[in-house]
Amino acid sequence: MKVLHFYRTYYPDSFGGVEQVIRQMVAGSARLGIDAEILTLTRDKQNLEIEYEGRPVHRAPLDLEIASAGFSWSALTRFKQLAAKADVIHYHFPWPFMDIAHFACGIQKPSVVTYHSDIVRQKYLLKLYQPLQNKFLNRVDRIVATSPNYLATSPTLAKYRDKTEIITYGLDRSIYPQAADEDLRKWRARFPQPFFLFVGMLRYYKGLHVLLEAAAGTQIPIVILGDGPVEQELKRQAQALNLQHVHFLGALPETDKVALLSLCYALAFPSHLRSEAFGITLLEAAMFGKPMISCEIGTGTSYVNLDQYTGIVAPANDALAFRAAMQDLLASPEKAARMGQNATARYEELFTAERMAARYQNLYQQLIK
Question: Per-domain residue ranges for the chain?
Fold first, then answer.
């Protein structure tokens, strides 16, 4: 069976949550005998045909970007060529150019859409795009929601419940590098006290301004791993609040991330807006046996992190509640350890890449019968 994944960005150009999920899908599918390829856009005009982790990645030059949505005219030709050889087209929503490509190329192959997120921020552009979005979602054969929470709260998915099923994200621990002793010693020396870790892109919906407010007036060590558009704004806020116990590390290699996940006391995940549809970092923390603090935003984050079982779910955009949650975990090491153990057990039950790949394999087989 040959499956073509189509999304606007992919490794090694971008390392976001959706890209990680597609990577895990491709790797997990390969173990089941599925021949998966990826078509994406790139700013690299020289290397358009590459391999990543043994799988073909076809890249078309990015011509235009509007509100984070990439467009490429040459991608239409490449998409039509690759789709002709595929048994199933696997789209990753949202990406308006993908909808255009589907109709412009006259795609008739079985198709599935993984619905990663509603369009939240671009409300005015959404009004223009909505007719195309609705036409596209009506046309595809099957839609996949990534958690029961998201299916229950998405106004868009509510229109397509009859052809939507739930397949949660999954991670494969073996894809991650082992934490090197040298890295563990380095970070343990730098952060000897129990610390809370944030991992991710520094974006508007990540709620890091709330985390900084929560840290004010405390001495709780907080380590922030990642970079992004609001990095300088957050650093100015931290300086204004005199948060000398908050450490911005920027973007670091995967080996350092694994070492910090291994060493941290708990994960701080303060995302406060619905743009955070799931939270791959929560799965990573669960995989590493760490308790989590997240916020209730009506998405998959509260499906991964069950309040008072795998961690604490605080009210969104509430710095005092987030501070209290951190203080609670620090004051109760036994409870924190138990929550971390529960998180790992829940990961192994529901969120492995093997489970995700098997469920997608079953879905693909249904579509091509």
Answer: 2-172+352-368, 174-350
